[in-house]
Design brief:
It is a single-pass membrane protein. This protein has 527 residues and is of the alpha/beta class. Helices cover 31% and strands 13% of the residues. Helix 8 packs across helix 14.
């Protein structure tokens, strides 16, 4: 019995020793053989997942599809890394100019689809006198957009952006630009809405605002008897617009300066705002500060180049400077009163360059002086790059106008970082309403009643593609007043002008109080 027990233990011990021996062999082989060792990844090895598409890149490509080829024009200096083949600054400027002209020309061609193009008055049968150029601004762009066609879409090419920024633009930057310029993400499109009757209108009396309102634009001083147009108020479709009051405006503009720079339609907007803020009443607390901005009537001039007034209670200043084309004008011979004048298409007015730092809000506009007759009568000669223009594309009025608008808006945008508090606007074109002819060929605007059933703007896009395209991609905002003004052909001076000429009607300028008051309400809502 005892021997059997010892034999069993000997067998178990032998099996244990064999197991230890085999395990030792396996461990030794594992350490030495690459076949076995490759089965376990090292500790410092990172396991990679299969590659996937970058969602941010896909989203940016979506923006590219929306806006066309992304940032087609790069206006930064090219890199010169080989053989020291440096491009001169003049060549770079020429390249910039060519790109800008091409973009403006493309936009101009697209805009012709809705007949927003300036008529060419260079034909021999269209003659102009100097008086008609300086005193009456009744020629310019014909707005033939039907009220029923206002809901039609404008192609993306029509309002394609022109950017002076680098192509390396972040997605966040694009979103910020759209918000700043009234793009797709804005909270309210003030240009979309309808005209409604409001018995609390107008905001001031055309008879009472004698201190600020030119008599030639006060229809209450004419033979006109129908003033129903004064009772209309603009109501945006998707939002409530804060009611304009003098106290609200002055409080918001306390210690600040608002500047209008443009043609006589800009002057009308300036006079409208002065009447709105003063309530159309005489104010003894308003100072004439025109001398601070060089507004002194020059010899032989009928009026100064501008006006500036300050409300002492809040130190708020409102001014207007006359610049019909937004170009810098430079006499070629200062000693010759009949000299030609260089009209620099790529250079903002000297006044704007000099006083921009003093402004808190600036509103620019141009449009109705861009015709051959006015340029010839004023002896304005187009210049680009400091030299007489030789670019054939800019000899066309539409191309030259678009080039100037793009140039000035983008110059202004480049200045904004220097003045963080400055708010800049470019106002879209104010439409004309000549029917059955032009201003000098029997054109009329005899309607005196608001159009029934045609007082609503439904489309999102501006019907002024040049203005919309110029501010695209910038921090300059579009003050879009074209479509809402297009509905108001009864609001012009018409044949009721004080110094009416038989057979001539003013279907360009507006009666005040009137449509320009609404432009200022939209402006107030955005400052």
């Amino acid at each position: 019995m005892k021997g059997g027990y010892n034999g069993l233990r000997a067998k178990q011990l032998s099996l244990f020793l064999m197991a230890v021996f085999c395990t030792s062999i396996l461990i030794f082989a594992w350490a030495k053989s690459p076949i076995f060792s490759s089965l376990i990844p090292p500790k410092n090895r990172v396991l990679k997942l299969p590659p996937v598409d970058d969602p941010l890149e896909k989203l940016e490509e979506g923006f590219d599809d929306l806006h066309g080829v992304r940032e087609r024009i790069d206006f930064q200096e090219p890199e010169h890394t080989t053989n020291k083949n440096y491009v001169t600054s003049e060549a770079v400027e020429e390249a910039k100019e060519e790109q800008l002209v091409k973009e403006a020309s493309d936009l101009d061609v697209a805009s012709e689809r809705i007949d927003l193009q300036e008529p060419d008055h260079s034909a021999s049968n269209n003659t102009f006198t100097s008086g008609s150029v300086t005193s009456q601004e009744t020629t310019g762009k014909t707005m033939e957009v039907s009220h029923r066609e206002n809901s039609s879409k404008i192609t993306e090419k029509t309002v394609s952006p022109l950017t002076f920024a680098s192509t390396n633009i972040s997605l966040a930057g694009r979103e910020n630009n759209m918000l700043a310029t009234g793009g797709e993400n804005q909270d309210c499109n003030y240009a979309k809405g309808k005209w409604i009757t409001d018995e609390n209108r107008p905001l001031y009396s055309g008879l009472g605002c004698k201190e600020w309102l030119s008599p030639m634009w006060s229809c209450r001083l004419t033979q006109r008897t129908d003033f129903e147009y004064e009772k209309l108020r603009w109501q945006p479709k998707d939002c409530e617009m804060q009611e304009f009051t003098s106290s609200n405006f002055l409080r918001r503009m306390q210690g600040k300066t608002l500047a209008f720079i443009g043609d006589s339609l800009g002057r009308q907007q300036f006079q409208s705002l002065m009447c709105m803020v003063s309530g159309g009443k005489e104010r003894h607390d308003v100072l004439d500060v025109g001398s601070e901005f060089g507004f002194v009537k020059a010899h032989r001039n009928a009026r100064p180049d501008g006006w500036a007034f300050r409300f002492r209670s809040t130190n708020s200043t409102i001014l207007y400077y006359w610049s019909a084309t937004l170009c810098d004008l430079e006499p070629l011979d200062i000693n010759n009163p009949n000299t030609d004048v260089a009209m620099h298409l790529d250079r903002p007015p000297a006044f704007l360059r000099q006083f921009l730092s003093k402004f808190d809000v600036v509103v620019l506009n141009t449009g109705h002086h861009w015709n051959r007759g006015k340029l010839n009568a004023n002896r304005w000669v187009m210049h680009v790059g400091g030299k007489p223009n030789t670019n054939r594309k800019l000899l066309d009025m539409g191309g030259a106008k678009n080039f100037t608008i793009y140039s000035i808006v983008h110059w202004l945008n480049s200045e904004l970082p220097k003045y963080p508090g400055l708010k800049a606007f470019y106002r879209s074109i104010s439409p004309r309403h000549f029917f059955n002819g032009e201003w000098n060929t029997g054109g009329t605007c005899d309607n005196t009643s608001p159009r029934s059933g045609e007082l609503e703007v439904l489309q999102d896009e501006s019907i002024d593609p040049q203005a919309a395209g110029s501010v695209k991609g910038t921090n300059v905002k579009l003050l879009d007043i074209t479509a809402l003004s297009q509905l108001r052909d009864e609001g012009h001076m018409s044949r009721y002008s004080i110094k009416a000429t038989p057979g001539v009607q003013d279907c360009l300028h507006w009666c005040l109080p009137g449509v320009p008051d609404t432009w200022n309400e939209l402006l107030f809502a955005q400052i």
